[in-house]
Design brief:
Layout: H1 3-22, E1 25-26, H2 27-34, H3 38-50, E2 54-60, E3 68-73, E4 79-85, E5 89-96, E6 101-108, H4 116-129, E7 136-143, E8 146-147, E9 154-157, E10 162-166, H5 167-175, E11 179-183, H6 184-195, E12 204-209, E13 213-219, E14 222-223, H7 254-258, H8 260-269, H9 279-287, H10 291-315, E15 319-323, H11 330-344, E16 353-356, H12 362-374, H13 384-405
Parallel strand pairs: 4-7, 7-11, 12-15, 15-16
Antiparallel strand pairs: 1-3, 2-3, 4-5, 5-6, 8-9, 9-10, 12-13, 13-14
Helix pairs in contact: 1-3, 2-3, 4-5, 6-12, 9-10, 10-11
Family: Belongs to the ROK (NagC/XylR) family.
Pfam families: HTH_24, ROK
Protein name: ROK family protein
Length: 406
């Protein structure tokens, strides 16, 4: 994937995200905030105005120079629905064109049921019906597993118990909308690139800890998916030979040692929590100073730090972002993580920035919505025919607005 194409995709979406978050701004301020040239901003803003996503607003007074014309968002230009799918629930959001979440809902879900996809479609239909009249551009779906291509959406997931499930095809038939499907960490990485701390950086490693352990990688401004969409399986790095059985069928994977279920199993074996005790009980014990609970987290942090160091040494990202449900206890993970990470990095990479983000569950679903919101600027065709359909819906909405205003 050419770097210029990937950069184009992210920059156009980042313009919308920045204006949505900070309000109307000048082209010069956009170029400075996004770290790109004024000429590039002028080029992209011209196209975004033509697409009906941006509009020129009043001039801003200057301090002696020519007044700057502000660019503002056309707020009703489109929306997207994103859904995070896990084994026992789904989280759904509706996002505006700037990525702002305007509605969210969580519903119980049984991925193992024979009717799981039909249930998912019904939940999405009900959620979509609760929105306003802003044009719906499409639906993005994030799943824990491998996805062949976003616009095809065939899913393999050990967490969901799905093998070659044609999720994209089935949802498109049920919803009659463009549907893009992606690994949930990859989708989350797109959200980080557009709205989070990865914005403005071309090479970033995004790591999630919680139920599983995953990673997404921005490489030269674009998402690195690998040969069949399975890049980023950090949780399945082999760590301990003949170690505990992992859900993937192998033994001693990182996830089998430090994933949520693994930590709870170890805590129960040590008598720290009862059979019904969960992550909150374990975290509270560590916060109250229980040495064994603190050591459990510290050991997990140590293993995670060494694994991430290996990835950083190989792929050379600018920064690492850690997030997910597990960061609630990060102050306990960090005791083992920091020294293990720095010691295992090659000397010139030991100063790499590690950002730990406070976690919100709907961030996963926002990442899924970002698949749709970024597809109008998909210069290298990652979103395929579904991206084309999203662009067509965006154009039709713009034309309808033009017709209504004449």
């Amino acid at each position: 994937m050419p770097q210029s194409s990937a950069r184009t995709d992210v920059t156009r979406s980042a313009v919308l995200a920045h204006i949505g978050a900070h309000g109307a701004t000048s082209r010069a301020d956009l170029a400075r905030e996004l770290g790109v040239s004024p000429a590039l901003i002028t080029q992209h803003s011209r196209q975004l105005i033509a697409d009906g996503l941006l509009e020129e607003q009043e001039y801003r007074p200057s301090q002696g120079g020519r007044p700057a014309r502000l660019l503002g968002l056309v707020s009703d230009s489109g929306r997207a629905v994103g859904v995070k799918v896990v084994a026992d629930h789904v989280a759904m959001v509706e996002s505006g064109i700037d990525g702002t979440v305007v509605r969210a809902a969580t519903e119980p879900f049984d991925a193992a049921a024979d009717t799981a996809v039909a249930r998912l479609a019904a939940l999405l239909r009900a959620f979509i019906a609760g929105g306003d009249d802003t044009p719906l551009l499409g639906v993005g779906v994030g799943v824990p597993g491998s996805v062949d291509e976003q616009h095809v959406g065939t899913v393999d997931s050990t967490q969901l118990g799905w093998a070659r499930v044609p999720l994209g095809e089935m949802l498109r038939r049920e919803l009659d909308l463009p549907v893009l499907v992606e690994n949930n960490v990859n989708a989350l990485t797109m959200a980080e690139a557009l709205y989070g701390q990865a914005r403005g950086h071309d090479d970033v490693l995004v790591v999630t800890i919680g139920t599983g352990v995953g990673a997404g990688l921005l490489s030269e401004g674009g998402l690195l998916r690998g040969h069949a969409g399975g890049a980023g399986d950090l949780g399945h790095i082999p760590v301990e030979e003949n170690g505990p059985l992992c859900q993937c069928g192998a033994r001693g994977c990182l996830e089998a040692l430090i994933g949520q279920d693994a930590l709870l199993a170890q805590a129960r074996d040590q008598g720290l929590i009862g059979r019904q005790g969960g992550t909150t009980a374990l975290r509270v014990l560590a916060e109250e100073g229980e040495p064994a609970a603190q050591q459990l987290y510290s050991t997990a942090g140590h293993l995670l730090g060494r694994a991430i160091a290996g990835v950083v040494n190989v792929l050379d990202p600018e920064m690492v972002i850690v997030l997910g449900e597990g960061v609630d206890a990060w102050n306990h993970w960090s005791f083992g993580f920091e020294p293990a990470l720095r010691a295992a990095l090659v000397p010139r990479k030991r100063s790499i920035q590690v950002a730990v983000e406070t976690w919100q569950d709907d961030r996963w679903a926002q990442g899924a919505a970002a698949l749709v919101l970024s597809s109008p600027y998909d210069a290298h065709g990652r979103s395929g025919d579904q991206g084309r359909l999203v662009r067509e819906r965006l154009t039709l909405a713009h034309r309808a607005d033009d017709g209504a205003s004449t």
